[in-house]
Amino acid sequence: MILKGNQRGGAKNLALHLLKEENEHIEVHEMRGFISNDLLGALNEAYAVSRGTKCTKFLYSLSLNPPPTETVSVAEFEAAIGKAEEQLGLSNQPRAIVFHEKEGRRHAHAVWSRIDVENMKAIQMSFDHTKLKSLSRDLFLEHGWKMPRGLVNSEERNTKNFTHAEWQQAKRIDKDPKEISTAIQDAWAISDSKAAFTHALEERGYTLARGDRRGFVAVDIHGEIYSIPKKANVKTKLVRERLGDEKDLPSVTEAKHSIANNMLPTLQRFKEDVRAKALHQKNNLLSERDQLIERQREERQAFLNKQEKQQRQEALRRQSRFRPGVKGIWDRVRGEHKRIQQLNEQEAKQALEQDQRAKDQFIANHLVQRRMIQHRASVLKQQFHEQKRELRSDIIQFSEMRQSSLEARREEFKRTRNDGDKQHRSRNRGPSIER
After folding, report:
1. What is the rounded distance in angstroms from the CA atom of residue 357 to the CA atom of residue 367?
2. Are 135 and 83 in contact (CB under 8 A)?
3. Residues 15-47, buried b or exposed e (16+ Cβ, 10 A)?
4. Are 252 and 210 in contact (CB under 8 A)?
5. Dist CA 191 CA 187 (whole Å)
6. Which regions of 327-404 does DSSP assign to beta strands (E)?
7. Strand blocks (E) in 198-348
8. pTM over 0.85
């Protein structure tokens, strides 16, 4: 989720802003560390405490915005706020959490007092935007959400150390030339030798290799080739001065072969991870299903017992309308008994119909609950099969890359051997004799 935070004063204005009725639903979810139970009073408390210091921006306000299509639970919001609090150094500070809902989207706001009351000074908020951006990236990766381009880090991790979620994210993001240049320029800037540059490129998902015509090149995980001088924006002479001779580097063909060899075990690990995760989710859903069925059986039996008890009581009430003894005989003579009998039959029929409608609605609610679990099971099954197909496609791609590189190496070996044989025959033929 996108995290945006800033230091600020203006307790009253912030409280009124967070309680604006332009939102469809507003919930003050938590008030921690304040005497007052209302938001305006709490933030005014923070202002009163700040008067004992020179701090004018005594509050830290953080907004948490999940992707528009994602539904985030309260527990997940609280976990994100807790991580942000720890990163920002605001642990155990007075805090308020407010939820807003509008147009089908839910987001959260957290507000802390920055004043450390024991030392009566404001907590320093160093590099808060950098920390929040890093945490935001982690949250996108943790939940497997598509990451906005603004959060993409140019210092990409070595693909051999990716998690499956990170691998999927890396595939979703189409690199543009600027991002590729930035990654290679970053690697060049922090390196002072061939070994350091090789390592820095590997950390960003590239392999340093010997090009056919361009000297030093970088090969990415998909086998694409990039000129180091061009992408790093440095002269070829400077590249050679820092990196030395490229003859001991692998050729592009060898680099592709090495990349494929490294990626295939990684993709196999992803397959096992996906299978294990799917099994875990399936077992959890089966357990949840069994618990739901057991609970519904108990609820249904209790509902039927309640209906049966109510029916007996109503039957007794209707029966009590018939008067006993002489009065009852007199009711029969004047037709009152028959009228009561018809009324009881009519009410009994209406009661049975009403009970049946209530029972139908009760069962319909149970069916909705059960269908929700079934839908989740279907979605998880579909996701599992899609991930399997995607990984199978990736494995085929890298297997073909490895095979094509092997064939290219064989052709290169044959060509080198044939050239050597021609030179050997030429030397053994000796000088021609003119007649």
Report:
1. 15
2. yes
3. beebeeeebeebebeebebbeeeebeebbbbbb
4. yes
5. 6
6. none
7. 206-210, 216-220, 225-227
8. no
**pLDDT one-digit tens code per residue, 137-151:** 888 867 767 667 566
**Chain-wide mean pLDDT for the chain?**
84
Handedness of CA 72, 74, 75, 76 (dihedral sign): positive
CA angle 91/93/96 to nearest 5° reads 110
Alpha-carbon distance of 14 to 31, in angstroms, equals 15
- Predicted confidence at residue 56, as pLDDT, reads 92
Q: Give me 389's structure tokens.
A: 């197909």
Lowest mean pLDDT among 67-81, 119-133, 210-224: 210-224
Contact 1, 72 (CB under 8 A): yes
Per-domain residue ranges of the chain: 2-151, 173-249, 260-415
Sheet-wide strand order for 216-220? 206-210, 216-220, 225-227
Predicted confidence band of residue 311 (pLDDT cuts 50, 70, 90): very high
CB-facing half-sphere around the CA of 401: CA atoms within 13 A: 25
Picking from 226, 227, 222, 218, the residue whose alpha carbon sits closest to that of residue 250 is 218
Separation of first and last alpha carbons in the chain: 89
What is the spatial distance between Cα 158 and Cα 198, in angstroms, rounded to a whole number?
12
CA dihedral 282, 284, 289, 295 (to 10 degrees): 170
Contact 60, 88 (CB under 8 A): yes
Taking residue 160's Cβ as centre, other Cβ atoms within 10 Å add up to 14
Grade residue 168 by pLDDT with cuts at 50, 70 and 90.
low
Instruction: Give the CA diameter of the chain.
Output: 160
What helix, strand, coil percent values describe the chain, rounded to 5?
65, 15, 25
Q: DSSP for 3-42, please give it.
A: EEEEEE--HHHHHHHHT-TTSSEEEEEEEES-S-SSHHHH
Give me the residue label for tokens 């044939």: 418
Residue pair 64/107 in contact by the 8 Å Cβ criterion: yes
In this prediction, residues 354-374 reach a mean pLDDT of: 90
Domain 2-151's class?
alpha beta
Q: Residues near 214 by Cβ (< 8 Å), separated by ≥ 6?
A: 227, 228, 229
- For the stretch 365-422, pLDDT in tens is 988 898 899 899 999 999 888 888 888 888 888 888 888 877 777 776 676 666 666 6
